[in-house]
Design brief:
about 150 residues; 6 strands; globular
Amino acid sequence: MSTAHDDDHSRGALRTLVDTYAIAADTRNDDLFVSLFTPEGLLRIYQEGALLGEFAGPAGLCQATAPLDQYHATMHLVANHTCAVTGNDAQGTTYCNANHLRPSGSGFENLKMTIRYDDRYLRDDEHGWQFTVRDLYILWIEVNPASVETLRF
Protein backbone atom coordinates (compact mmCIF):
# COMPACT_ATOMS: atom_id res chain seq x y z
CA MET A 1 0.00 0.00 0.00
CA SER A 2 1.37 3.37 -1.06
CA THR A 3 1.51 6.22 1.42
CA ALA A 4 1.62 9.97 0.80
CA HIS A 5 5.22 9.95 2.07
CA ASP A 6 6.17 7.19 -0.43
CA ASP A 7 4.50 9.10 -3.28
CA ASP A 8 6.28 12.35 -2.32
CA HIS A 9 9.60 10.51 -2.12
CA SER A 10 8.99 8.93 -5.54
CA ARG A 11 8.05 12.27 -7.09
CA GLY A 12 11.25 13.81 -5.73
CA ALA A 13 13.34 10.92 -7.04
CA LEU A 14 11.67 11.16 -10.45
CA ARG A 15 12.32 14.90 -10.60
CA THR A 16 15.98 14.20 -9.81
CA LEU A 17 16.01 11.64 -12.64
CA VAL A 18 14.71 14.12 -15.25
CA ASP A 19 17.11 16.83 -14.01
CA THR A 20 20.06 14.40 -14.14
CA TYR A 21 19.12 13.48 -17.71
CA ALA A 22 19.53 17.16 -18.70
CA ILE A 23 22.92 17.40 -16.98
CA ALA A 24 24.12 14.13 -18.55
CA ALA A 25 23.11 15.42 -22.00
CA ASP A 26 24.75 18.82 -21.51
CA THR A 27 28.02 17.35 -20.19
CA ARG A 28 27.97 14.51 -22.76
CA ASN A 29 28.41 12.05 -19.91
CA ASP A 30 27.40 8.91 -21.79
CA ASP A 31 27.91 6.55 -18.84
CA LEU A 32 25.61 8.64 -16.65
CA PHE A 33 23.12 9.07 -19.50
CA VAL A 34 22.87 5.31 -20.12
CA SER A 35 22.58 4.59 -16.37
CA LEU A 36 19.34 6.59 -16.25
CA PHE A 37 17.58 3.97 -18.40
CA THR A 38 16.69 0.34 -17.78
CA PRO A 39 18.74 -2.15 -19.86
CA GLU A 40 15.85 -2.28 -22.35
CA GLY A 41 15.38 1.50 -22.19
CA LEU A 42 14.25 3.43 -25.24
CA LEU A 43 14.60 7.10 -26.25
CA ARG A 44 12.61 8.31 -29.28
CA ILE A 45 12.78 11.81 -30.77
CA TYR A 46 9.86 13.29 -32.74
CA GLN A 47 9.15 16.53 -34.56
CA GLU A 48 5.80 17.30 -36.22
CA GLY A 49 4.76 13.67 -35.96
CA ALA A 50 7.90 12.32 -37.65
CA LEU A 51 10.29 10.00 -35.83
CA LEU A 52 13.73 11.66 -36.11
CA GLY A 53 15.72 9.17 -34.07
CA GLU A 54 15.49 6.12 -31.85
CA PHE A 55 18.07 4.90 -29.35
CA ALA A 56 17.50 1.54 -27.66
CA GLY A 57 19.42 -0.34 -24.99
CA PRO A 58 22.86 0.60 -23.70
CA ALA A 59 24.53 0.38 -27.13
CA GLY A 60 22.02 2.75 -28.69
CA LEU A 61 21.64 5.10 -25.74
CA CYS A 62 25.39 5.70 -25.51
CA GLN A 63 25.09 7.28 -28.98
CA ALA A 64 22.14 9.52 -28.06
CA THR A 65 24.20 12.56 -27.04
CA ALA A 66 26.52 12.42 -30.09
CA PRO A 67 24.30 14.77 -32.18
CA LEU A 68 24.84 17.43 -29.49
CA ASP A 69 28.56 17.50 -30.30
CA GLN A 70 27.84 19.81 -33.24
CA TYR A 71 27.07 22.63 -30.78
CA HIS A 72 29.52 24.88 -28.96
CA ALA A 73 27.47 24.30 -25.79
CA THR A 74 24.00 23.20 -24.70
CA MET A 75 21.83 23.89 -21.69
CA HIS A 76 18.60 22.03 -21.06
CA LEU A 77 16.41 23.94 -18.61
CA VAL A 78 13.87 21.54 -17.14
CA ALA A 79 10.60 23.16 -16.10
CA ASN A 80 7.25 21.52 -15.28
CA HIS A 81 7.33 17.88 -14.23
CA THR A 82 4.23 15.87 -13.39
CA CYS A 83 4.02 12.18 -12.68
CA ALA A 84 1.65 9.48 -11.52
CA VAL A 85 3.14 6.68 -9.44
CA THR A 86 1.61 3.21 -9.16
CA GLY A 87 3.84 0.99 -7.05
CA ASN A 88 7.10 0.51 -8.93
CA ASP A 89 5.77 1.97 -12.19
CA ALA A 90 5.19 5.59 -13.08
CA GLN A 91 4.34 7.83 -16.00
CA GLY A 92 5.22 11.46 -16.37
CA THR A 93 5.45 14.55 -18.53
CA THR A 94 8.33 17.02 -18.46
CA TYR A 95 8.70 20.40 -20.19
CA CYS A 96 12.10 21.69 -21.25
CA ASN A 97 13.69 24.66 -23.00
CA ALA A 98 16.81 23.27 -24.63
CA ASN A 99 19.41 25.85 -25.69
CA HIS A 100 21.95 24.92 -28.36
CA LEU A 101 24.73 27.45 -28.96
CA ARG A 102 26.21 27.21 -32.45
CA PRO A 103 28.46 29.29 -34.71
CA SER A 104 26.68 31.63 -37.12
CA GLY A 105 28.53 33.92 -39.49
CA SER A 106 31.21 35.66 -37.44
CA GLY A 107 29.39 35.07 -34.13
CA PHE A 108 26.98 32.65 -32.50
CA GLU A 109 23.27 31.93 -32.37
CA ASN A 110 21.08 30.04 -29.92
CA LEU A 111 18.86 27.34 -31.38
CA LYS A 112 16.23 26.98 -28.66
CA MET A 113 13.94 23.97 -28.75
CA THR A 114 10.76 23.86 -26.73
CA ILE A 115 10.40 20.21 -25.79
CA ARG A 116 7.88 17.95 -24.08
CA TYR A 117 8.98 14.56 -22.79
CA ASP A 118 6.44 11.79 -22.18
CA ASP A 119 8.07 9.28 -19.86
CA ARG A 120 7.55 5.82 -18.47
CA TYR A 121 9.58 4.85 -15.41
CA LEU A 122 10.39 1.70 -13.47
CA ARG A 123 11.80 1.36 -9.96
CA ASP A 124 13.82 -1.56 -8.66
CA ASP A 125 15.81 -2.11 -5.48
CA GLU A 126 19.21 -2.01 -7.20
CA HIS A 127 18.87 1.09 -9.41
CA GLY A 128 15.95 3.05 -8.02
CA TRP A 129 13.90 4.93 -10.63
CA GLN A 130 14.94 4.72 -14.28
CA PHE A 131 13.40 5.54 -17.64
CA THR A 132 11.91 2.62 -19.57
CA VAL A 133 10.70 4.86 -22.41
CA ARG A 134 11.37 8.55 -22.99
CA ASP A 135 9.54 10.13 -25.95
CA LEU A 136 10.98 13.54 -26.79
CA TYR A 137 8.72 15.87 -28.80
CA ILE A 138 10.26 19.00 -30.32
CA LEU A 139 7.29 21.36 -30.23
CA TRP A 140 8.90 24.41 -31.83
CA ILE A 141 12.25 26.05 -32.48
CA GLU A 142 13.50 29.61 -32.10
CA VAL A 143 16.82 30.93 -33.42
CA ASN A 144 18.26 34.06 -31.76
CA PRO A 145 21.61 35.86 -31.84
CA ALA A 146 23.90 34.93 -28.96
CA SER A 147 27.27 36.01 -27.66
CA VAL A 148 30.10 34.31 -25.81
CA GLU A 149 31.97 37.55 -25.15
CA THR A 150 33.51 37.82 -21.70
CA LEU A 151 31.68 40.35 -19.53
CA ARG A 152 33.70 42.93 -17.68
CA PHE A 153 32.74 43.73 -14.09
